[in-house]
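S., here's the first fold you wanted:
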Amino acid sequence: IGGVGEKAINERITFAHLAGARSCVMADIMPTSHDWWDSFRNKCTSLGLAAFRELGGVDIRSRDSMKDLGRVDVVHSTGIFYHLSSVPDALWSLRSIVGEYLITHTITFPKKVENEFGTVELPDCGVLFLPAMTEPERKVISKHYHDKFGSRSGWKDVNYMSPRPDDQATVQYVEYDELSCGPNWFFYSDNAFRALLRVCRFEILDEYKWQDHTLQVLCKPMS
């Protein structure tokens, strides 16, 4: 779910198929007419794979939207939660289709970030609400990510991905009279994200921390 992405860079459907999955479904909030789907189809063709079942307009925030998926043995859904205004609701919605396992992740924030602009600390129970960053905090956090990732697309500046609430920025918090899934809304601490999974009745089986930046987890629904 949410696996198409720009240029299909992070899709995992082809990997699952090549690893032996009996059947695969790609679902994404983008309609199947969007050019991101073409990138995915082209990738499948380049690997000599037949087209997979496609479901466009699938919104992880809505259980009704995901009914066409039914129960799925293994659900892979990454790169989404930090773009959502209500992460617990979305995770609970996602749980409704997980048959055996869920592979997911989110951006997590370090306990302490310090540079020439100051210090930002996050307790183990903490979550950063990014629109609320003060100007000094924006400078600290922006420098942190610039040092880590340079000018890589998507990390141009925190003011781009998480603009000030009153900014007329390219990425908006409200679009078409609805809360948008374009900006970055929340960065969890590692502990807070684990707790969120447990609150939503998932048991964590394994995890992997990438560059002190994202926390990948393999989990299964609790009975």
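And the second, which I think is the more interesting of the pair:
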Amino acid sequence: DLRQAYDFPNIVGRSPSMQRLFARMRGAAAHDSSVLIVGETGTGKELVARAIHYQSPRAEQPFVPVNCGAIPRDLFESELFGHRKGAFTGASRDTIGLVRAADRGTLFLDEVAEMPPEIQVRLLRVLQERCVRRVGDVTEAPVDVRFLAATGIPAEQAIREGRLRRDLFYRIGVITIDLPPLRERPEDIPFLAQHFLERCNRVFPNKVDAVDPRVFDLLTTYPWPGNVRELGNVIESIFAMGASGRVLPEDLPEHLRQRPASRGDAPAATGPEALADAERRAVEQALRAARGNKSRAASILGISRTRLYNKLRLYGIDDGESGK
């Protein structure tokens, strides 16, 4: 069931960039090399990692995901490598750690650039020697683990900023997979929207059986700063607000409806400047819809508060009012 659930056809995309992605995923699944997955928030990095694992020879073994940004710094070493009872205050029992928990399977290190530098040094040794030593232990234990990692920023940027060791990058990025943001593959949006509609139809009591073409116009011209996750949230919100039968533009969240589109309109401007301008407008509209509440605006966009604050700094938006 897991192998079928994370088969590549369940990652929706017909654009050329997605076809290239599927080709790299097939190659990565067939081998045992370490993989670094690079993509913006909401592009589906963990989904890709799970798909690679469940289509690999290790599919019957554990897939252990680790969010490196969620582990307290002082607990990182113990969580990852385990510890012996009495190794430090509070160590009341032996633990094997997440690396050994993934033995014979796959360890997925999400947001690997958030890992403390001293832990990156220890991880590098595990990658090189295929052995792990618990905190408080004097001997090493062999491990057979495949490592997948992900980062939300380009690897070279993480290295320049001192967040990712270059030697670790060379070890863990034997195969690099770049996930395209949704704004760069608008032709996939109708298929993704249909995918989420079908999924919500199975969960919600109210059912949708048709979509007004104007809805797809609005969806395909929006820049999607939160990527696929944001699109999924928008479709779920349509159901949560009680829409049924035929979805109309007024069923969409306000920040999407404020961007009227028509199939007869002139083609929109393209290129980095046009995309940045569209993304800025989307952030401003979400802030207006949230009446300046940044937590709510981040939820509307399908991104984290940290990413929203990064966008505010990037575009010079100093507070909850648009245009500043």
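Why I say that: The first strand starts at residue 35 and ends at 38. Strands lie at 35-38, 63-67, 106-110, 131-132, 141-142, 146-151, 175-178, 208-211, 245-247.

Talk tomorrow,
H.
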